[in-house]
Structures are given as C-alpha cells and as structure tokens.
Design a protein that fits this description.
By secondary structure, this protein is α/β, with parallel strands linked by helices. About 40% of the residues lie in helices and about 25% in strands.
Length: about 220
Amino acid sequence: MTTLSTRAGAAPYTKLVLRLYDLWVIRLSNNYGWRCNRDYFVDLYRRNIGHRHLEVGPGSGWALANIDLPTDIDLTLLDLNANSLDHTASRLDVPLTLIEHDVLVPLDKNVEKFDSVSINYVLHCLPGDWSTKAGALTNLAGTLTPDGVLFGSTVIGVDQSFTVLGTALMFAYNKTGVFGNRHDDLPGLRRLLSEIFEQVEVTMVGNVAIFVARRPRTRP
C-alpha cells in the first residue's frame, strides 16, 4: 500500500516540472542549494552502472542521458510517478522496462536480479526516519545479484550548514511533504547501509551524501 506521504514526494513531477527539472534541480539547486555539482553524479554512474541496471526515481532521466550507457544495457526504470517514467524513457534510445511502483513496497519476487541499482535523490523524498526508509534499501538489496552494487545520493538534513537557497528549499520542501529529511543524519545513513551491505562507502559533497554499497548481507 502506498501512503499519502509517499505520494507527496512523488506528486510534484508533473510534465511541466519535468521540463524544468534539469535547470532547476540539476544545475541551480545542486550548485547553489546543496553545493554538489552535477559532475559528481556523472562520475558516480560511470563507475558503477552495470549491464542489468535498475534506476529508482529517475527524475528527468538527466544522469542516464548524460553518460555513455553500456551498449548491451538491460535497463529498468522504477518510479511511483508515471510522468517521470515516460519523460525519462523519451530521452533514451535503448530498450526499457518501466515499473510504476512504490520503493517502500517489495518488488515482485519474479523480477530478475540486477547488477546495479541507483537511487539518487529519492531517500530524502521518502517519509519518516531511517527506520522507515530502511525498507526501501532492504527491498533494493534484495533485487541485487551477490556481486551487485547499489549507489545513490541524498540530501542530509541534520547538522548541516546550508546556503540561503538551501535553507529556503529545505523549509519549503519539508513543509509541503516533497522532502522528508529533517531527521536524516549522516551517521544514521552509514549505520543503515552497513546493516544491509557488507561494503559501504559514503562521501559528503556539500550537503549531499553520495554512497556506494556492495555485497548485500544474507537475510533469513
């Protein structure tokens, strides 16, 4: 079941918003709100994307459209908002599987395992604290091959020094439910990832935690 709070994080992605997404989020918000240039995301994808890849919360699809995808890539997009799925698909000239789904809900067990899963700028849009958001990461860990990698990023809300724009965005987005990261701290993210994966790397760039996690732990 999808909660209203989860819907609130996905709802803003109308067709008009997605046309403005690259300018507002990728360029202006990243540079002047969160102090994390888009080049970091390009590098993250280039280093980690695998043959069979699951993209969770693709937004406008900017990252996928700005790297050289593996020629034989088997790409699946997952999002709660159909507009985001359609917009991203329109930018890519590769075969795609589209899944309209809530990441807090486990995927169908019949879905084939992935070599890589990315979840960029999704965790800070999910409701609740890390104990709630753990469900998303656990679900995604379950979709990986034993040697698979999960990578992504999230804006940290606790113990951060924000720019003027960043402060305004944090207030507005959390008030409207677009963000749910007022209680998201860096130690909590590291602890959560380490509970689910054996190998974890987390790097802070501005207010953004960029993470790479490998070797999902076996769960009963």
